[in-house]
Structures are given as structure tokens and as C-alpha cells.
Specification:
Four Helix Bundle (Hemerythrin (Met), subunit A); 6 strands; about 260 residues; 2 domains; two-stranded antiparallel sheet; mainly alpha
Amino acid sequence: MVGGIIMALINCPNCNKEISDKAKVCVGCGHQLIDDVNAEKTMLSCPECGAFTDTLTDICSNCGYPLNSLEIKSDGKQKSKRIFKKKWFWVSAICFVLLTSIVLFASNNIRTENYNIEICTAVDEIMAVSADAENVGNQICSVWNNAIFDKDNENTAKYTKTAKDFNEALSNLFADEEFTGKITDIRNKQSEIDTYLGKLKNPPGKFEDAYDEFKELYYAYSDYVDFVISCKGSYNTYTEDLSKKSSVLMESYREIKVELLGE
């Protein structure tokens, strides 16, 4: 006690010299002291020599004792801030990884399901247009055949009855508004189907083979439809080639059905 004021001694955290707890600077080493009365709350107490050391220091500044795993003294209790921070970091990291994995998994499932719908829709539309083209091809063959062999048929009569030969009969057919309307409808649907080639690029892993099969189907269908409408060659070569291209188309369709549906 000095002049009625109770003095307390503390150890300088730098040189361990006993000094007044009111001192701002250590008189022994000149170390700048923390002037907060609660300074000890942010200091580590060395278990080896008892000196206080700043929490940012990994070893005791007085004796060199490792302080990494020590707890910080606060209100009479010690809390392991560093250990807590490390644990919190790893817990946060693990939670982030798990959450990211769940989001990616869900996103991939949605993308896969959407792709499956898209490719199945494209296949259905291709086969629908192919069926329309088949009807057109059959009509061409009927008019052509009946004109060559002078057959009387109510379905082809308006094209063949007044025609001098099969060329004129076919010209009558391709000039018919109802028939040309069918061809226009097929062409419009072809344009819509063409967009699927772009939509279906970069398929999910499980659909890579299906996409290859889809391209084969697309090329077979395009070749078939274009040939039907072109009406090239003689009657015999036209009907023979039409049959071959139809077979290639159906084979491609069977292949992709196996890939998509396992049928």
C-alpha cells in the first residue's frame, strides 16, 4: 500500500520482471503493456514459467514453451480459441462440400431427366414425320404405277385419267393443292426436328451412346424423307431405293429404342 492506494505487482509478459499493474511500459525492457484492466483476458498463461504471453504468439516469450494447444484465460476460465477455430473451419468446410455435392447431384438428376424427355420427344417426332413421308411415297408410287400400266383406280384417277403418260400423271400429282400441302407440312416439321441436333449436344454421360444412335436415326430419316419428295429415277429404281432407305430408317429406330428403352 502506498499513500492509501493498494498496489499490485504483475510480471512483464516480455521479460517477466515484476512491475506495477498500473504501468504502461515495462521499466525493465521497455515493452509496451496493454493498458486495459482486463488485459489478462486476451493473454495466455505459460504453464511452465507462469509468464503471460500474447495470444498471437505460438511459444512463450519467456521460456519458449509451445502454446499452440493452450486455452485463453478469460474470467477465470480458459477457452481454446485456436482449437475451436480450427474445428469450426473443418466443420464448415465439410458442410460446404456436402451441400455442394447434394446440389450438384440434384442438378445432374434434373438435367438427365430433361435430356431423356427431349431425346424421346425428338425420336417420336422423327418417326411421325417419317410416317407422313411414307404415305406421300406410297401415293407417288400408286400414281406412277397406275399411269404406266393404265390401271383404273379411284384414288389416282384424277391424276392419271387425262394424262398422256406417267410423267404428266406425276406432274398432275405434284400440282395438286392437297398433295403439295402434305409436302409443305413435312418440310415445316423437318425444320423443327433440325433444332434437336443442337439441343441434344453435350449429353449426360449415360446418354452419350443414345446421342450417337440418335444422330444415325436423324441421318437415316433425312435421307428417306428427302428421297421420297424428290421422286427421282425410274419407277423401278425409285421403289427399290425407297424400300432400302425405309429399311435403314427402321433399323436405326430399333437401335435407339434398345438404347433408350431396352426393348
